[in-house]
Design a protein that fits this description.
The complex is a heterodimer of chains A (115) and B (434).
Chain A: H1 2-27, H2 33-36, H3 58-84, H4 86-108
Helix pairs in contact in A: 3-4
Chain B: H1 2-12, E1 15-21, H2 26-33, E2 38-40, E3 49-53, H3 61-68, E4 76-80, E5 92-94, H4 100-112, E6 171-175, E7 187-193, E8 196-204, H5 213-217, H6 225-246, H7 250-261, H8 270-278, H9 281-284, H10 294-300, H11 302-307, H12 319-323, H13 336-360, E9 370-372, E10 375-377, H14 389-392, H15 398-407, H16 423-433
Parallel strand pairs in B: 1-2, 1-3, 3-4, 4-5
Antiparallel strand pairs in B: 6-7, 7-8, 9-10
Classes of the chains: A mainly alpha (115), B alpha/beta (434).
């Protein structure tokens, strides 16, 4: 019974959400092509917008993931270590070695340099 | 019901205005920024009203049409001291600066309540670059680079990266002449690699700036030094306000504008200087960036020259200034940071000179030349120097490039003086503000 009520609530919420969007879509027409062009103060782009560019914060993200993953797995590992002993240490060592390659790469890219 | 309630609510909101500046249009902008109920927005996408302030030269009409069509409907266009485009001949035109805020508010109310139709679109609703690629998925299909989907080439790495050797696709765009982050009228073709300016080609010089009438009069007859110095300080404060707005320090920009509006010989900038230091403005204006060589600095003249260590100031040749004990202030750096320190120091210096000159009732004595806020005006007016950006900006990151441009006063001086705003209207605005 509770599941059915929950389902009905979900369906009503979904229906209402879609309904609101549908109503708005009925009233709005697609903006014109000139309106959709990027705003450059009256100027025009010369090249296509599909381009590859350097995400400069990329090494910082790499570093965050390296340390984050390390910590994320080390908490459950600390529990398992009590049961498994040396085997868990070896496994964790391998995992950390892989992650540290990322850290070493980040180091080489100058991520630890304060700018 | 709900829609009409929302419309009424929207009509009562602040009027989002996007200013497209023509010749001498920035004067009214300083005033609108301080008018309650008007919000100057930085993108046409946020605006309901396009305000074309000042005459737009015919060669920029095509860019103006593109800009006009970028406002989301419903929107309206108001022309302030500017002739409407031929397609919009029936649009509202206002020439009186005092009537402008009310005209903007009325236009917005009418637009939001549905009593006025949205401005018509001027450009055809067609893709600017129609599909020319081959294949189903848009890659074009010919050769490694895949043709020219949508009529424009794919961005490609045509230049070596000048920062860290990581060569990536460079993106070339034509910016301006109505981009609010650039001086009015400035247009450039910019190639960017990520956020790095790879190349900058100035295509349109900024509009000549109009100086206050006192600088023009100083070339005809002796004028009160206090008046001359207050006009100079006002010009620099308005430039500072532009840069503060660019740096996201909107509140301080309004402080600088208010100060410039009510400027008198008693005014001081000490408090503004302290606020700028505390909020990190001088750190934002990247030290060591945008450094001018001696030749470039001499060409730009004025503050830029003195910030680069050149002791060039026509005031030191005027006997009346010498009696006031005038010696030019100079900095050594020549970079963006030094230029702003120089600007603040010169505003302070001007106010002190104005105070002393008023006490002694001193008039300028040299009429063959005058030091304008833009630089020395002797036989020739200060000329446009925006082409130095081509050497100065490559290698800078985008934010550094923008702060560098804002710190430089590059536009030439117009042969026509600025029209003064009436004192009564200024007081009215102040009272409303209070």
């Amino acid at each position: 019974m509770e599941l059915l009520t929950l389902l009905i609530v979900l369906l009503v919420a979904l229906g209402a959400g879609l309904g609101v969007q549908w109503l708005a879509m009925c009233h709005q027409t697609m903006p014109t092509y000139p309106q959709r062009a990027p705003f450059l103060g009256g100027g025009l782009p010369e090249t296509h917008a599909w381009n590859r560019y350097h995400v400069r914060y990329y090494p910082m993200t790499l570093l965050l993931i390296a340390f984050e993953m390390e910590m994320m797995f080390m908490y459950p590992w600390a529990v398992v270590y009590v049961e498994q002993g040396m085997k868990a240490v070896m496994e964790m060592g391998m995992f950390l070695a892989i992650l540290s390659v990322g850290i070493v790469y980040g180091w080489r890219e100058g991520v630890f340099k304060w700018q | 019901m709900a829609v009409s309630w929302l419309s009424r609510l929207a009509a009562r909101a602040r009027v989002p205005v996007f200013p497209a500046l023509g010749m001498h249009g920035d004067t009214i902008l300083h005033r609108l920024a301080l008018t309650p109920g008007i919000e100057l927005v930085d993108s046409p996408r946020h605006a309901s009203i396009l305000l074309v302030a000042g005459g737009v030269p015919p060669d920029l009409h095509e860019a103006l049409r593109r800009l006009h069509d970028q406002l989301p409907a419903p929107f309206a266009t108001l022309w302030y001291r500017s002739a409407p485009l031929s397609e919009l001949a029936g649009d509202l035109r206002v020439d009186d600066p005092e009537a402008l805020p009310e005209a903007l508010k009325r236009l917005h109310r009418e637009l939001m309540s549905g009593r006025r139709d949205s401005s018509p679109r001027l450009l055809p609703d067609e893709p600017p670059n129609p599909w020319e690629g081959l294949g189903d998925d848009g890659h074009g299909g010919e050769g490694m680079m895949g043709g020219v989907p949508y009529g424009r080439p794919m961005a490609m790495n045509m230049h070596d990266d000048i920062r860290d050797g990581l060569t990536l696709d460079s993106l070339t765009v034509t910016l301006g002449p109505f981009l609010p982050v650039l001086p009015p009228g400035l247009g450039a073709k910019v190639t960017l690699q990520g956020d790095l300016v790879q190349s900058w080609v100035t295509q349109l010089a900024p509009y000549p700036i109009a100086l206050e009438n006192v600088f023009h009069e100083a070339l005809q007859r002796p004028v009160p030094i206090a008046e001359l110095e207050l006009a100079r300080a006002r010009h620099h404060l308005q430039r500072l306000a532009f840069s503060l707005r660019l740096s996201g320090l909107e509140h301080l920009a309004l402080v600088a504008l208010r100060l410039s509006r009510g400027l008198n010989v008693e005014s001081r900038v000490g408090r503004l200087h302290r606020w700028l230091t505390r909020c990190g403005f001088f750190r934002l204006t990247a030290a060591g960036r945008g450094r001018l060589e001696a030749g470039q600095a001499r060409r730009v003249g004025g503050i830029a020259a003195r910030a680069a260590g050149l002791e060039e100031d026509l005031r030191s040749r005027d006997a009346a200034y010498r009696r006031l004990g005038f010696t030019p202030i100079v900095q050594r750096g020549g970079d963006t940071n030094a230029r702003w320190r120089q600007t603040l120091a010169e505003i302070d210096h001007s106010l002190q000179l104005a105070c002393r000159a008023e006490q002694e009732d001193l008039y300028s004595e040299m009429t063959e030349a005058v030091e304008t806020p833009r630089g020395p005006w002797d036989d020739y007016r200060p000329e446009d120097a925006s082409d130095i950006l081509e050497d100065l900006l490559p290698g800078l990151e985008w934010d550094e490039a923008l702060t560098t441009i804002a710190s430089l006063d590059l536009a030439g001086v117009s042969e026509w003086p600025l029209e003064p705003l009436s004192e009564t209207s200024l007081k009215d605005d102040e009272e409303r503000q209070a």
